[in-house]
Specification:
Largest sheet: 3 strands, antiparallel
Strand order of the largest sheet: 1-2-5
Radius of gyration: 21 Å
Order of helices and strands: EEHEEHEEHHEH
Number of helices: 5
Oligomer: single chain
CATH topology of the largest domain: Multidrug-efflux Transporter Regulator, Chain: A, Domain 2
Distance between the termini: 37 Å
Shape: extended
Structural class: alpha+beta
Length: 149
């Protein structure tokens, strides 16, 4: 693997077998720990195991992986970028109290956790709406639709 910068890794062909084997191993792992040479053990939290599983799976598929950090408090522009909407649209969501925010001075600030929770809720609603449409289409005898379940 080649590091393009401190956060992006591009898989190399020579690592394909090792990455595939590691991805297969991690697919069934729910808990893990690191064991160092002196025998000391450190548990790896479940969320980090999932992150590692996703990163290795993508690398094994030949895709580059970039790990970035995010502040826990976002500007409205950063929150809008994360949601894939314009800043004015995000401000409307804030004004409608759909996402909590603070305004310590003149600029609003949004917690990353609140933005991610809103995005998860939105995706869940979209999934339900798509399933309802598929169910209605099936009841109406329309073909060519794939169930989303």
């Amino acid at each position: 693997m080649t590091a393009l910068d401190s956060r992006t890794v591009v898989p190399e062909e020579r690592d394909a077998d090792a990455l595939t084997m590691l991805a297969d191993t991690l697919a069934s792992v729910s808990a893990a720990e690191i064991v160092v040479r002196d025998g000391a053990r450190a548990p790896i939290p479940g969320d980090l195991v999932e992150l590692l599983r996703d990163a290795v799976s993508n690398l094994a598929s030949g895709r580059a992986v970039t790990l970035t950090t995010r502040d826990s408090v976002l500007t409205t522009q950063a929150a809008a970028n994360l949601l894939g909407v314009s800043r004015p649209t995000l401000v409307r969501l804030l004004d409608q109290h759909l996402i909590p925010y603070t305004q310590p001075q003149t600029h609003r600030r949004v917690l990353l956790a609140d933005v991610l929770a809103y995005r998860a809720k939105l995706r869940e609603q979209q999934g339900r709406a798509l399933q309802e449409m598929a169910d209605e289409a099936q009841q109406d005898g329309l073909t060519g639709f794939v169930e989303t379940r």
